[in-house]
Backbone:
């Protein structure tokens, strides 16, 4: 007497395996939840006439400031993290702290944190962040993502800008109805 010893695998198990495979493929193996909407690559926009900041005339600066700017430029050329010239900007609702700036293959990476310092919730859209270099070129994100922050909550800020070497960079944060916050991150030198 011959018996069929093959075991049949229920169809629903194949569906489960296929579903898990598709999830793994769509997340590219990343199952962490600490990614935020404030991690984006920005694109260059046409130059705006009349933008002259941030640029320094090194000749008119005090020697210790000249040395600090030169050291920062050298650190960035080596691809190491350098401090922003204006590391913190704050109003009644948010505090934006830039921890460091580093030159990467795609341009310049800006890393920091955004904190709700107010007493009510605030939504911070990626479009609130605009960067400009000293030639007038503006760098923005077309993304519509945002991060809701309750009082006292923070989120990482990780922006990448295709900034050519030797240019200065200023960050403007627009969160109406508050006036814009500005931070000089990197300066161009003569």
Residues:
């Amino acid at each position: 007497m011959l018996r069929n010893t093959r075991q049949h695998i229920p169809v629903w198990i194949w569906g489960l395996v296929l579903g898990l495979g598709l999830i793994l493929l769509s997340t590219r193996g990343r199952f962490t939840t600490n990614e935020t909407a404030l991690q984006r690559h920005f694109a260059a926009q046409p130059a705006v006439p009349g933008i002259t900041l941030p640029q320094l005339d090194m000749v008119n600066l005090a020697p210790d400031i000249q040395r600090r700017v030169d050291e920062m430029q050298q650190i960035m050329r080596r691809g190491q993290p350098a401090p922003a010239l204006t590391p913190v900007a704050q109003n009644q609702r948010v505090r934006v702290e830039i921890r460091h700036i580093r030159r990467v293959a795609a341009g310049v990476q800006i890393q920091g944190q955004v904190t709700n310092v107010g007493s009510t919730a605030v939504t911070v859209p990626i479009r609130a962040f605009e960067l400009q270099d000293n030639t007038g070129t503006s760098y923005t994100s077309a993304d519509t993502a945002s991060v809701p922050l309750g009082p006292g909550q923070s989120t990482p800020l990780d922006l990448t800008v295709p900034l050519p070497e030797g240019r200065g960079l200023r960050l403007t944060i627009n969160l109406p109805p508050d006036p814009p916050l500005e931070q000089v991150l990197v300066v161009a030198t003569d």
Q: What stands out?
A: Residues 27-35 have pLDDT under 50 and may be disordered.
